[in-house]
Each structure stands twice: as structure tokens, then as C-alpha cells.
Amino acid sequence: MQQRLARGEEAALGELYDRYASLVHGLAHRVMADDDAADQITREVFGYVWENPDAYEPKHGPLRTWIASLTQRHAVHRLRQSENRGRSTTAEVETRVREARAAARADFIVTSMPTPLRDALELAYRERRDYHAAAADLGVSEDETRRRLRLGLQLLSTAMEPGEQHEESADLRPPRGGR
Fold it and tell me: Exposed (0-12), middle (13-18) or buried (19+): which is 73, by Cβ within 10 Å?
């Protein structure tokens, strides 16, 4: 893909866009909380990739991770600019940026995790199911459901800044009770 982009193949950019546009837009929206800003950031990220295909270093990780990182940097930069234009203090801006970064990392982690883990987390948090009901819905044992939830939560915990993990660990517990 990188070589095709370097040769200026527009089809390569189209394929890249088809593959990653929803990820880029979703991460940008998570940081900015604004569709128009997310659309603009999406255009900026793919414009950057088109103009700088050699900026990607495969030895540093997958293309998906690089694109997510670009998106986060563009979105955080835009957030800082917009917050600084307003009446926000530096501390307020940095708090918002930290929250946005953690949210974007969490979104990326969830979209990147294996489907069985993601499905278990979605049942527990979005559907408010306890592990008994989630196990029945997933068609696996309760032990397997607990294992998937534990692994998914461990992955999600990496989205937080190091100092936040102890303070917010209570927020990562699955809801008690079910439907």
C-alpha cells in the first residue's frame, strides 16, 4: 500500500480510505465531539497520508496504528486550537485533551480487540447484562465470559494515563445485576 501511494496511485488512497475512514472519523469525533470537525480531520489525515506516504515506518507497527496515531495528533491539535480561542484556562484545555486522548485510545482498543472480547464487553456495558446473561447470549460458559470480560477490561485499562489507572479502576467494573 505504501509503495502504491508513493507512486501516486489514487486507487491506493481510495482503498486506504475505504478501509480506515470510519476509524479515523470515529476517533476524531470522539476527541472533538463535532461531526464537522471530525469530517475536516478525516480529510486532513488522508491528505497527509497522500502527501507523505514515506512517513509511515512499518517497523514501528501496523498501518492501522499509524493512521490512528495521526488522527489522534490532528484531533488533539485541533482541540487545543479551538479551546485556546475560547475562554478556557490552560488547565481546562489540558484536562479536556487528556480526556479526549484516553477516550480515543479506548475507542481504538475496542475496535481493534478480538471480536469475542468486544462482544462480551458490549453485552456487559451497552446491554447492561451480567455475565450469566452474557454467557447465554454468547453461547459460551460463564467462566469463558468472565475470562473475556477480564481480558477486555485489561486491554481497556491501557487506554488510561498511568496515574489514572488506580483512581478510575472502580469505573471499569462490569455492572451488577442484569436484565
Answer: middle
| 37 closest CA partner among 75, 87, 77 | 75
- Look up the pTM and report it: 0.61
Domains of the chain: 1-112 (1.10.1740.10), 114-179 (no CATH)
Distance of CA 54 to the CA centre of its chain: 24
- Residue 165 to residue 171: CA distance in whole angstroms: 10
Per-residue pLDDT of 31-89, as tens digits, reads: 888 899 999 999 999 999 999 999 999 898 888 889 988 998 999 888 888 877 766 67
pLDDT in tens, 132-145: 999 999 999 999 99
Cell triple for 110: 475496542
Cα separation values, 123 from 133, 147, 160, Å: 9, 14, 22
The answer to whether 86 touches 132, Cβ cutoff 8 Å, is: no
Length of the chain: 179
